[in-house]
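1st attempt posting a full record on here, be nice pls
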Amino acid sequence: MELSELIREMSERNNKDLDIASVNEIYLDFVKSNRRYGTYEHHRDHLKAITNYLKLQNVKMVSEIEMKVIYKFNRTQKDSGVTNKTINKRIQVLKRAISLSIELGYLSKNPLEKVDKLRETTTETQIIPTYIYTKIFDYLDTNPDEFAQRDKVILYLFLETGIRVSEVVELNVEDFNFEERYIHLKFTKTSEERILYFTTYVKYELLNYMENYNISTGPFFLSRYHERITKNAISIRLQRIKEHLDIKLSISPHKWRHTCATYSLSNGANVEEVKKMLGHKHLETTNKYVHVRNEIVIEMVNQASPVKKMKLDEF
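the predicted structure (as tokens):
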């Protein structure tokens, strides 16, 4: 008997109730077949977090999920330092998983239907200041580590193109056009291909990297085991740099993307151009960088103002 038939038989036997493990399995199979692998991992991890908690509360069936259990989950997550935004995502993913089982006829009711979202605090987009990333590049230029050049090239791409870390790890040599200086991104978060351009300086950094690491085809960025580098490996490398240089700010891969977007806007690019470069589906996502851009312009005016140099601002 196939899994779908077994699950249907179980749900009918239990008056259209279903165990949470089966609900998760159905949903993750669907996501894995219809979404990017990165999306699958994201949803899998959120489901794991809330499902593990429900197991601790001895909640195994969908019908056993009560509001008081969800409220307790929220409090436990908050006490562990998890943000409201992440808590909302975890509940939302389980809610979607249950809804899919309802659509397939395995369940009749979603106990999470009326769960209110927690209020999410709007956090200001942070960027990596120029003096920090200059310090990082100086360190990588003098670092004898055999992978320092690879790390430097990855950071150049982050800073110049705003590429996502999930897109960097999927890059192949064949995706680069060095004559016209662009990358043809085929594996993206939105599943929509896009073109990213790079400068002549970065072009030669990329070519030097390829020559020094003997890369001619296949995965562009390799690990020490000569396999395609992973997102986790890049994050670990950045964390080690952060600790070595005693940097207090976050220099995570996504912060480099924020920095690219913000400085692109402050240097004259319009929001639509930046939206296209970053691969955003919605303009609102790109607009969050405008406020930070304005702060940078204000700081530039403060530093470069002719009036200030004449000391007239003292009056």
